[in-house]
């Protein structure tokens, strides 16, 4: 199956997880097509100062991969700065948040998967 960029759902979300500003989300994979492995594969764009608020994952884990710009992330109780090519994992039961910092927009891939409890 091929899904062209113009056919990928795009939405603008305000104050995600009680964060600041607007998040642009372009989804590559919707839950119905994830074969039960997860619920999200998307590219997010945040303008400087905009954020996804600090939140906990339960029954799933999320990966962020920075494509462009600079991010300030909360990784549980630790603040870290990430740049292009850096990645963070938020495992089942952990908490995180992300904010765009720097001069221009920050773009990152997000993938939410369900942990395999059998291993």
Number of domains: 1
Structural class: mainly beta
- Radius of gyration over alpha carbons? 14 Å
Task: Report strand order across the widest sheet.
Answer: 1-2-3-10-5-8
Mean pLDDT: 94
Task: Write down the overall geometry.
Answer: globular
Assign the CATH superfamily: Jelly Rolls
Q: What name does CATH use for the topology?
A: Jelly Rolls
Low-confidence stretches: none
Number of helices: 0
Number of DSSP strand runs: 10
Strand content: over 45%
Task: Tell me what the CATH architecture is.
Answer: Sandwich
| CATH structural class | Mainly Beta
How far is it from the N-terminal to the C-terminal residue, by CA?
A: 30 Å
> Sheet with the most strands?
6 strands, antiparallel
Helix content: under 10%
List the secondary-structure elements in sequence, H or E.
Answer: EEEEEEEEEE
What would you note in describing this structure?
With 119 residues, the protein is mainly β. It has one domain (8-113): Jelly Rolls, CATH 2.60.120.10. 0% of the residues lie in helices and 56% in strands. It contains no helices and 10 strands. The protein has strands at residues 10-14, 22-29, 38-46, 51-56, 61-68, 70-75, 78-83, 87-90, 95-101, 106-113. The strands form 2 sheets. A 6-stranded antiparallel β-sheet has the order 1-2-3-10-5-8, with no helix packed on it. The chain has a 4-stranded antiparallel β-sheet with strand order 4-9-6-7, with no helix packed on it. The model has no long low-confidence stretch (mean pLDDT 94).
Task: Offer a quick outline of the entry.
This protein has no helices and 10 strands. It is mainly β. A 6-stranded antiparallel sheet has the order 1-2-3-10-5-8, with no helix packed on it. The protein has a 4-stranded antiparallel sheet with strand order 4-9-6-7, with no helix packed on it.
